[in-house]
Amino acid sequence: MRRTGRTEHGGTAEALRLVGVTKVHGTADNAVTALDDVSLSLPTGTFTAVMGPSGSGKSTLLQCAAGLDRPDRGKVLVDGEEMTGGSEAALTKFRRQRIGFVFQQYNLLPTLTVLQNTTLPLKLAGRRVDKGLARDVLGRVGLAGRLDHRPDQLSGGQRQRVAIARALVTEPRVIFADEPTGALDTRSAGEILRLLREAVDVHGRTVVMVTHDPVAASSADSVRFLADGRLVGRMTDPTVDGVAERLAHLGDLVHSEPRTEV
Ligand SMILES: Nc1ncnc2c1ncn2[C@@H]1O[C@H](COP(=O)(O)OP(=O)(O)OP(=O)(O)O)[C@@H](O)[C@H]1O
Ligand SMILES: [Mg+2]
Questions:
Q1: What residue ranges line ligand 1, CB within 6 angstroms?
Q2: What's the rounded Cα separation, in Å, for the pair 114 and 43?
Q3: Which of 45, 171, 231, 236 is the most interior residue, by most CB within 10 Å?
Q4: Ligand 1 mean position to 31 CA, how many Å?
Q5: What is the pLDDT of residues 131-155, one digit of tens each?
């Protein structure tokens, strides 16, 4: 784990930091505290899984950390720079430069080809649309022969590989994935996990993935457990059985571990 200085892939040693992040959905009578004072620090070049019961705040955590939603309190720092605060336009620009996002339902644009979907983030960020780079990335995810296909001509696993290529093409500091294997069969899920692992091991990216699946979580370097909007535990070098066991006892952990960690 690199703790200080610049890393071999550029950027700082700490890719993501959350400090006291709190998010309340809704107002007054129907207010739900989805995140309650969450602090965490993730070193560059690590793969972290986030797990917890339905409604525990996993997606809210990812959305706030990725700049797709704003916390009510607390700070988010990406690569040492604060993302929270600032205008909507500044937040969007920051996100486009430094963050990649992969969704469970792919979120590809149906009228664009595979190549066009992949180059779209470059266009939106006002960067040169380097088709050679996009072709390389699509080759890496095994779609070199599908550049001109549209999403409805692809399988679910292939669509998710386009989404991964789209997330990788801007060379973001952090890639967030919310249940990226949730809609896929075991084999396609395995391919997606291998690609996320490769983004970390070969390209020095930092990946944060929400998952319900202990098998998917076991691809990560560590797992953070959420319950009731709070971080309630972590596991390094997770195994499938170890994760499943911890999940089954998550209720017991809620009040037994410190609620914030750095
Ligand atoms: N837009 C919203 N308005 C009101 N409440 C919301 C909103 N989004 C989420 N919530 C609530 O916040 C809490 C956390 O939701 P979140 O989607 O982050 O959970 P999750 O852990 O991702 O769950 P799942 O595993 O089902 O995807 C839940 O109680 C949810 O009902
Ligand atoms: Mg969710």
A1: 25-26, 32, 34, 52, 54-60
A2: 32
A3: 231
A4: 11
A5: 999 999 999 999 999 999 999 999 9
- Ligand 1 atom closest to 226 (CA): 21
Residue 2, phi-psi category: left (phi > 0), alpha (psi -120 to 50), beta (remainder): beta
Q: Which residues contact 224 (CB under 8 A, 6 or more apart)?
A: 40, 48, 49, 50, 51, 231, 233, 234
Burial of 110 (0-12, 13-18, 19+ CB in 10 A): exposed
- Tens digit of each residue's pLDDT (9 = 90 or more) over 90-117: 899 999 999 999 999 999 999 999 999 9
Ligand 1 atom nearest to 57, measured from its CA: 18
CA–chain centroid gap for 21, Å, is 17
The pTM for the full model equals: 0.92
Q: How far is CA 174 from CA 45, 101, 129, 152, in A?
A: 9, 9, 21, 28
Kindly identify the ligand whose nearest atom is closest to the C-alpha of 51. 1
Nearest CA to ligand 1 atom 1: 25
Residues with CB under 5 A from ligand 2 (ion): 59
| Token pair recorded at residue 211 | 């998952």
CA-212 nearest atom, ligand 1: 25
